[in-house]
Amino acid sequence: MPKSLHVKKGDLVQVIAGKDRGAKGRVIATLPREDRVVVEGVNMIKKHSKETHQGPRGAKTGGVQTMEGPIHVSNVKKLKDEKPADKKADEKTADEKTGEDS
Known about the structure:
- The protein is 12% helix and 37% strand.
- The chain has 102 residues and is mostly beta strands.
- The protein has a domain at 1-50 and 63-81: SH3 type barrels (Roll).
- Strand 2 (24-31) and strand 3 form a beta hairpin.
- The model has no long low-confidence stretch (mean pLDDT 85).
- It comes from Nonomuraea polychroma.
């Protein structure tokens, strides 16, 4: 059974070790069997794909694509999502508590 990771898909993380140290991004995918995660904009690799004629209307596909590679989960730190507080909601709850109208 795969181990659970301290981050999950969609979490905001910061890279704490390696060539991309200090970079922040969202987790795109988790690979629990390998203890790795894919973070957007981190560990960019080039992948070569063979030219084929399988595209729409026989279009050629292939060439060099740049994509994110997986990094070890121990090299990332989970960050807290900063969501701005809604002032209107705070004022409304304060009025409801005191029972006063503005």
